[in-house]
Design goal:
Blueprint: H1 3-6, E1 11-12, E2 18-19, E3 24-25, H2 42-51, E4 57-59, E5 63-64, H3 84-94, E6 100-106, E7 121-122, E8 140-141, H4 144-164, E9 168-173, H5 178-183, H6 198-201, H7 203-215, E10 221-226
Parallel strand pairs: 3-4, 4-6, 5-6, 6-9, 7-8, 9-10
Antiparallel strand pairs: 1-2
């Protein structure tokens, strides 16, 4: 078999779920949510078109877990079941050619433009680099209650995605968003159990995963997006 032929072969994941081939569309932000951050009919239309291309896996753009903290206008926020009918249509559209669709879930932390959020939260009260200060507000350091709320919200969004018919979710822990901020020794200067050593800095990501896993079935896939630079030394 030629190396290129491998791309067309099915891939069975550890949980027994099988992708029909090894081609995936990575996440990109569609900004097709409504002005009130809800699912719109345009999303099923778009994903039906993408599914027709034959990729074994479609990854949605970053769906936010908290309407108080979004990354950009017209994000979709998944906190409750108010849009379950359209969410189901979105999932069915992504599966319409036989592939799977996973929902990427995200919290921007301090990486939210000031015109959207003037009171962001982050692992530590540190701004983004100097050149970005006019565009991003100084974040508030998260409390223990804030952190526990974020964990619950990730789990609830994953549970709702499964109820809607999505095949899995992807935890967004890259690109400078909240979970990436916790992993980074440059952005996370905490001195409690959520900061300091790599074991502490990665604690939030692991707790998010565990909460998601407890809230969903074993056949529901959970992946993660990370940058390799996230764990480097300061």
């Amino acid at each position: 078999m030629k190396p290129a032929d491998v791309l067309g072969q099915p891939l069975t994941l550890k949980n027994g779920s099988t992708l029909p081939n090894r081609i995936a569309k990575s996440a990109l932000s569609e900004t097709l949510g409504s002005a009130s951050l809800r699912v719109t009919p345009q999303l099923p239309v778009l994903y039906r078109r993408w599914a027709s291309g034959g990729a074994g896996l479609l990854m949605t753009g970053n769906v936010m877990i908290d309407r108080r903290h979004i990354g950009e206008p017209n994000n979709v926020v998944l906190e409750d079941d108010r849009d379950m009918e359209l969410l189901h249509e979105w999932a069915i559209a992504g599966q319409s050619a036989g592939g799977q669709i996973w929902m990427q879930l995200n919290h921007p932390g301090k990486q939210a433009p000031i015109v959207i959020n003037s009171a962001p939260i982050a692992p530590s009260a540190l701004p983004l680099k100097a050149g970005l200060k006019p565009y991003f507000a100084m974040p508030r350091e998260m409390t223990e209650d804030d952190i526990e709320d974020v964990i619950r919200r990730f789990a609830r969004s994953a549970q709702l995605a499964e109820l809607a018919g999505f095949d899995g979710v992807q935890i967004h822990a890259a690109h400078g968003y909240l979970l990436s901020q916790f992993l980074s020794p440059n952005h996370n200067k905490r001195e409690d159990r959520w900061g300091g050593s790599i074991e502490n800095r990665m604690r939030l990501v692991l707790e998010v995963y565990r909460a998601m896993r407890a809230a969903t079935g074993t056949a529901f896939s959970i992946g993660i997006k990370m940058n390799s630079i996230s764990l480097r030394r300061p």
